Amino acid sequence: MSPRYAGPVIDPHHHLWDLSLDRHPWLRRKNGADEEMVFGSIEPIRRNYDAKDYLADARGQNIVATVHVEAGWSQAHLAEETAWLDTLDKAGGVARRYIARVPLDSPDAASRIEAEAANARVVGLRDIVSWHLEPAKSFAKTKGLMQDDRWRLGLRHAERLGLVFDLMLFPWQFDEAVRLVADFPNMMFVVNHCGSPADRSLEGMTAWRDGLRELSRADNVRIKISDLVAYDPQWTLESLRPVIVHCLECFGTRRAMFASDFPVAGLHASFDEVYDVFRTVAAALSNEEQGDLFFTTANLTYRLGLEPDGTSGD
Which domains does the chain have, with CATH numbers? Predict the structure, then answer.
């Protein structure tokens, strides 16, 4: 067993928001009710969360850079999110790169994608395809987006521009995803949150394990080991360990990265608790492999341009 990782850390998945802008419909209270989502009540994160809040949560973890992932801005104002991020203080490396959102099946998807790609900080896109039978737990507006011709046309445009695609889906959609990544061999896909193992039954976890293994066979797919606590709110180290280990068995360390998904993961764990689990499980690996998970894979995938010691290569 190697010493626990103590080098520079890149967090390739977190969110920031300012609720005074009224741009996040999913964070609004509906009729005064605190509705449940797939990860439970979101009441504790109905508050502003800016770079200072993030750095306070991440204090002591040696975070040198982060990737901001689109945070569910309203459809009518999507272009504003990237512009808003550009105004933020980048001290501490927060939001060094962005994953923007473009509805790929929209009539103006091509122009929207080109506008996002023109910003050097935008390295990828996310248009969530996670569909659930229960509407409150569904992130996508419709079933089968990955098979939709117009949606795929938008994705093809993003592929031509060299953008990464962050793929957030449920395990019952893995078969569709296998076909998708095969049809877009020149695009890098990054599975979010370990493929969202939301069904914790024996049957559900077996389907997740088998589907993830099949999806990992494609060389153009990587994975973020993130927010496992959302789907295991009564988590322990020993309940999270096999999920992390399976991801590593499928993808290896050169195609996997640890990420916080804060503040959403904060619904069920502190930042220190999340990274303590990562460091504890990773201690079974070599120093180089640990470096892959905490730094190198994210640095390469999202073109952060950092030197191995975490300093800027710009």
Answer: 9-301 (3.20.20.140)
